[in-house]
Amino acid sequence: MPQLTLLTDPHSKNITLSPEKPRQRQLSTFRLGKEKQSPPDLRKLHHEEEDMAAANKSRASAMAQGKAVAMEEDEEEKTVKKEHGPQLNAGKNGDMKGQPDRGKRKHSPEGGGVAGRDAKKHKNAYEIKGKIATAEVAAKVDEDPPLDQLMRLLQHGGKEVPNGESVVYWMRMEDVRIDDNTALYKASQKAQQLHLPLVVLNILSPGEWKIHDRSSKKIDFLLRNLRDLKPKFDALNIPLYITSFDRRLQIPRRVITDLMPLFKSHHLFVNLEYEVDELRRDIATVKFGQEKGVKVECFHDRLVVPPGRITSQAGKPMSVFSPWQRQWAKLLDKEPNLLEMSPLPQGNDPSVRQGPLKDLFDATSVPEDIKGFVPEDKQLLKECWPEGTDAARQLLDRFLHTKARKKQFQLVSPLTEGAEEDDKHSRVREYQDGRNLVDGDNSSRLSPYLALGVISGRMVLNEAAKLGKGKRLESGRDTGVGMWVQEVSWRDFYNHVMAKWPRVSMGRPFLEKFADVQWEINEENLQAWKDGKTGYPIVDAAMRACKARGWMENRVRMVSACFLVKSLLLDWRLGEKYFMESFIDGDLAANNGGWQWTASTGTDPQPYFRIFNTLTQSQKCDPNGDYIRYWVPELKNLKGKAVHDPFHSMPRNEFNKLGYPIPIVDHKQSRERALFRYKNVGQKEE
Ligand SMILES: Cc1cc2nc3c(=O)[nH]c(=O)nc-3n(C[C@H](O)[C@H](O)[C@H](O)COP(=O)(O)OP(=O)(O)OC[C@H]3O[C@@H](n4cnc5c(N)ncnc54)[C@H](O)[C@@H]3O)c2cc1C
């Protein structure tokens, strides 16, 4: 789901840092859930968007109680105008520089449709409204993306800092592993060089997770992976220090002024995250660090090719996947070191357990659960998604060397016995066709692991390279391995897009010209889609699978997303948010990329009239209907093709006995409607 609208520029002088002295704190006060200090209010200095989200929330509840909301909205508009003026950075005629698609049309402030004027009628719209930047604000941010700002800030290098008594690696939500971890390794090198111990810090932030729509399944998976890591760090005599800061805007200050003094450290190492809020957090952290004598060193690690490395011949950033992908493959060929993995970190000397940092080892533990993020079916999730880098390696090994198995689409462990070794017909070798089928374990199922960084892109590609001719990385549509490598490169692609055009993580369409498509206002249809009760079996099967195990195969992600956007004509951001809140692999760049691709508002050059026929897709991706029969038990006894379209295949009295909903929308009519709305942006048919 999009991140919140950021209204202030953290690079500006607005971020004045408090001259307050760093406090030495007792370890015990950092135990989870025991934040006693009331920290300074960073919102005024940094972000305003949490206020917007809160305002929207209270408006939504006011609306639910039938209270008028228009007044509050005007107030919010006024605040924005007061702070930024009415036409932030807009050129003549509203023309905005640096945007991927600049139309001369006038935009409604929030991008029209469900998030704009009609929002008052749609309770769910409030959930996304506070997260959608205006076109003007997004254009301004695109002009000088936060990643570029951060890079400039880091170029200056900063002042020399004292050695201190430890070196700290801050593990983020996307690098939850020890293997091939750039910042962890660099921190370890620094620690060795200075003869200091290494400390690993992890910050849990339920407040941030809420704002960023993290699913309880993903948080549960995060905690399980941290629990898996704790003894591994312990064996290296490295303390894994876990703390909890609920309010994300306080994190930069608290890291620099509370935690770094606690660790007696002046050296902080991090891997970069490319979402706009995370980059702004890092800008603030670097700036606080510069004020307080902490050197913050940032590294590219999440992707195989860092953002900005791939440009057209004219040196321009690229937003179309196929030519971008060719450049990506060429670059890896030319610079194979991009695939080189970082060595493991050096352990600390055991004497650290007697030294000044000794209390860190037992000061904190990984909580079993975190309130508000406890999934219903923890045991089942553990079965379906075993934690740890070793498990991820096994999943990869199975994918590369064993045959696909029917039934593995069910609620079962991906590592059950009985996988047949077959290097010629392994899942990856059959991936060209297999990737479009949902009735088996045809793809790797590594997305939860890659999204959390339990395994790295480099690690999986190095293994894939061993299967290529001459042990080189194949990339292209000719072989299963090449096709899979190409699929993995989508991860890099969508992150590159997000880093270059941060608008996509601010709720804006990549193609601004589609901002005002008029979406339907229909709570019942949205709910039916979420519950898997649309009367379209393949959509319902996928949505129920999503609810049960937090994961869907790529093909049915596309089918169900297309159904929401083009058949129900509901705002794609509602779907994007729901996926994020439901998936165990929720990842802003990939999810947003997938939704914008489906909604035809993204980087895909295909025109908007590509609209999936749900029935045809169903027959292709689940030819025997096994996937549908499993996930939609009402249809489990249907034979043959009827399972794809029971309403039109059975006598009405027979259909009624199934207890399955009739289709909530007519495919043909809804297709016509979508074509009209996209063709005539801003209009509804008569
Ligand atoms: C509407 C929509 C929403 C999506 N949301 C997410 C999401 O929140 N998180 C997520 O990881 N993927 C998302 N995807 C992309 C893709 O569906 C999943 O990555 C894939 O289904 C995961 O299954 P797998 O691990 O077996 O993939 P494989 O086919 O084995 O591919 C290997 C890896 O490549 C990457 N990858 C593959 N396809 C894509 C893609 N289209 N975009 C980005 N990365 C890709 C993933 O990391 C994946 O694990 C979304 C796609 C759509 C259409």
From TrEMBL:
Domain (Photolyase/cryptochrome alpha/beta): residue spans on this chain: 166-304
Keywords: Chromophore, FAD, Flavoprotein
InterPro entries attached to this UniProt entry: Crypto/Photolyase_FAD-like_sf, Crypto/Photolyase_N_sf, Cryptochr/Photolyase_FAD-bd, Cryptochrome/DNA_photolyase_1, DNA_photolyase_N, Rossmann-like_a/b/a_fold
GO terms, molecular function: deoxyribodipyrimidine photo-lyase activity; DNA binding; FAD binding
UniProt cross-references to PROSITE patterns, sorted A to Z: PHR_CRY_ALPHA_BETA
Binding locations of FAD: 431, 443-447, 484, 487-494, 585-587
Co-factor binding comment: Binds 1 FAD per subunit.
Residues at the site labelled Electron transfer via tryptophanyl radical: 519, 572, 595
Family matches, as Gene3D superfamilies: 1.25.40.80, DNA Cyclobutane Dipyrimidine Photolyase, subunit A, domain 3, HUPs
Record's compositionally biased regions (Low complexity): 53-64
Composition bias, Basic and acidic residues: 32-49, 422-436
A biological process from GO: entrainment of circadian clock by photoperiod
Cofactor(s) of this protein: (6R)-5,10-methylene-5,6,7,8-tetrahydrofolate; FAD
GO CC terms, sorted: cytoplasm; nucleus
Pfam families xrefs: DNA_photolyase (PF00875), FAD_binding_7 (PF03441)
Region (Disordered): 1-120, 415-436
Recorded family membership: Belongs to the DNA photolyase class-1 family.
PANTHER family per the UniProt record, alphabetical: CRYPTOCHROME (PTHR11455), SI:CH1073-390K14.1 (PTHR11455:SF18)
Protein name: Photolyase/cryptochrome alpha/beta domain-containing protein
